[in-house]
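Example record used in the benchmark description.
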Amino acid sequence: MHKIPVSVLVIIHTVDLQVLLLERADHPGYWQSVTGSQNPGETLLQTALREVSEETGLNAADYALTDWSIENQYEIYEEWRWRYAPGVRFNTEHVFGLCLPTITTIRIAPREHLNFIWLPWQEAAERVFSSSNADAIRNLPLYQQTNF
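Model output (structure tokens):
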């Protein structure tokens, strides 16, 4: 079954703006926030909840999960296009924030990630490979002030 070209990006952060990053197993050195494609029949919120659980072991419903109402469209990297239906070249990404009170130990999914790290938001924005991920992290102080 092909992936749906709709995904979520969840910026997991603490109240003091430490950001969780995950290192991709299929691309060592590529750091990112929680991300994943929508499954058939899921709402975007359900996708965000599922991806956070799968990738970190956290129950996002226990914390402040906020839809930032940011939508990014980007061209899917050539190396990952085989996962989508033939001819699909673009993905629409929806950005969420998940605020935790403090740095929390997580459980990574070994098939998906090699490692995790908590970094101050400025450093996290510089570390991620995706420009939309970097932009979302750079906007974190704005969303922290207006939504929490």
